[in-house]
Amino acid sequence: YLLVAIGIVLAFGVAGVGPERLALLGGALGVGIGFGLQNVVSNFVSGLILVAERPIKVGDVIEVESLVGTVQRIGIRSSSVHSLDGAEVIVPNSDLVSGKLINWTLSDARRRFDLVIGAGYAHDPREVMKVLKQVVARQPLILHDPGPEVLCTSFADSAIEYTVRAWAGGYLEAIEAKSLLATRIHQAFAESGIEIPFPQQDVH
Hints:
Blueprint: H1 2-14, H2 19-36, H3 38-53, E1 61-64, E2 67-74, E3 78-83, E4 88-92, H4 93-98, E5 101-103, E6 111-119, H5 125-137, E7 149-155, E8 160-168, H6 171-192
Antiparallel strand pairs: 1-2, 1-5, 2-3, 3-4, 6-8, 7-8
Helix pairs in contact: 5-6
């Protein structure tokens, strides 16, 4: 853009248009742009900021309001984000600069997730935590650095609640790892005879 601007100025100079007329023309254009194209100019300037500061780059997983997806393209006026459900969303650059932006992969692609499980009060918490640690240790999608944690976190109305905190290699890997871990814990509890209680009500 800088090269194009310099070329235009040189072209006007060759055509005999002096700097005073260019300044007058630039002022008139500035007023017109300021009133009529505020959003366009805002997005354009925001695009330059994205290029200069690089808070996001192509391939990053970002979250803007309710949109979560992978950055496909960063343009001067808008950027393209491929959402998790397969949609190609065009996001104005001003939303990326002035709004709340979460970049899940800016400096570290790893993602932590928490899984809360309830077990009956009749079961020894030490035995329950032992089963949970064994299940977590066998999951290939869970990272060992930083290592996972198994905590007894709450005495709820119907169960003792345990929290598994683990890390995965990326945002999408964390979603898959959490789902796989939940199914394996359910299976391990059934094999160990550990009850997962849930409130039951009779309505008359």
